[in-house]
Amino acid sequence: MGNSDIECEMEDGLKEMRKFYEEFKIKNESSQEVRDFLANAFQDEALLSRFLRGRKFRTQYAWDTLRRYAETRFDTYPDIFTDDIPKSVVHMRENLSMGFLKQRDKEGRRIAYFKTTEWDADKATLKDVTAASVRIFERLLHDEDGINNGIVFIQECSGMTLKHATHYTLPAMLRIINLYWYAYPVKLKAVYFVNFPYILTFLYRIVKPFLPKKLKERLLLTPPSRKFEDLHKQISPDKLPKCLGGHLELEEAADLAFLDG
Q1: Do the beta carbons of residue 187 and residue 151 sit within 8 Å?
Q2: Who contacts 50 (Cβ-Cβ below 8 Å, separation ≥6)?
Q3: DSSP alpha helix (H) spans, 55-155
Q4: What is the dihedral of CA 232, 234, 255, 261, to 10 degrees?
């Protein structure tokens, strides 16, 4: 598709999204905060275009995602989108327990990661961890690379115990799905849980019926006995930090410039 075709598709998509928004205004639904956010959003053509591109110019899908983002942020999970990171997980941001890597996977997609060894389940809830990770994910709203190509996510689970498992209630897991799958115009192209402990497999069985079909297809759970073998079939260890079975120091592998940009 040439640039002129993309420009035409973008122009048509923006017009269609504005029609959806006008219908929304007439119905006078959602909270005042959501309506205010959407009113500002429709003055920001760059933001609208990112939602369109992220949803492959499917205008209904793009509008639904934008509206869901606003409702998630202001109505459903406002305690996740606070100004400050919960104190219980500040150290996890500071010591690079979560973030993005400089290298891409073999398809050229950004790699997000979370190593759980620094998560103290006695002091921090899964909601706290989610609140910290949301701030990282927000960077993708301004990232053409992530919007256009999607990302992959790796969670290294070797530090997880029964205490961690107690935080994975069904509402908590549904919150994660509602946030990262439905409320952002960024596609999760692959999700890897490595060194996934047996104690968490029963939790996966509980949430599995609620997972979107595409997410199930893109999800890889590997037990401690496999270590990083299956992950390395997808992403070379030359591109990964040692905490993910790779060859790099985490400080060298992590993309600090992207997070601070």
Answers
A1: yes
A2: 141, 142, 144, 147, 185
A3: 59-71, 90-94, 126-138, 144-149
A4: -170
> How far from 109 is each of 142, 170, 194, 213, CA to CA, in Å?
15, 30, 19, 21
Sign of the CA dihedral with 234 first, then 235, 238, and 240 last = negative
Q: What structural domains does the chain harbor? A: 3-76 (1.10.8), 87-260 (3.40.525.10)
Closest C-alpha among 168, 218, 224 to residue 196: 224
The token duo for 66 is: 């934008």
For residue 18, CA distances in Å to 15, 45, 131, 210 come to: 5, 11, 31, 31
pLDDT in tens, 38-76: 999 999 999 999 999 999 999 999 999 999 999 999 999
User: In this structure, what DSSP letter does residue 245 have?
Assistant: T
| C-alpha torsion sign, points 244, 250, 252, 255 | positive
Average pLDDT over residues 132-141: 92
Three-class secondary structure of residue 188 per DSSP: strand
Is the full-model pTM beyond 0.85?
Answer: yes
User: CB under 8 Å to 123, separation ≥6 — which residues?
Assistant: 88
Task: Report the residue count for the chain.
Answer: 261
Give the CA radius of gyration of the chain: 19
Alpha carbon distance 259, 143 (integer Å): 11
The two structure tokens encoding residue 233: 């079939």
For residue 187, give the nearest of 212, 221, 159 by alpha carbon: 212
> What is the three-class DSSP state of 149?
helix
Query: In 118-233, at which residue ranges do the beta strands (DSSP E only) sit?
Result: 151-156, 188-194, 219-221
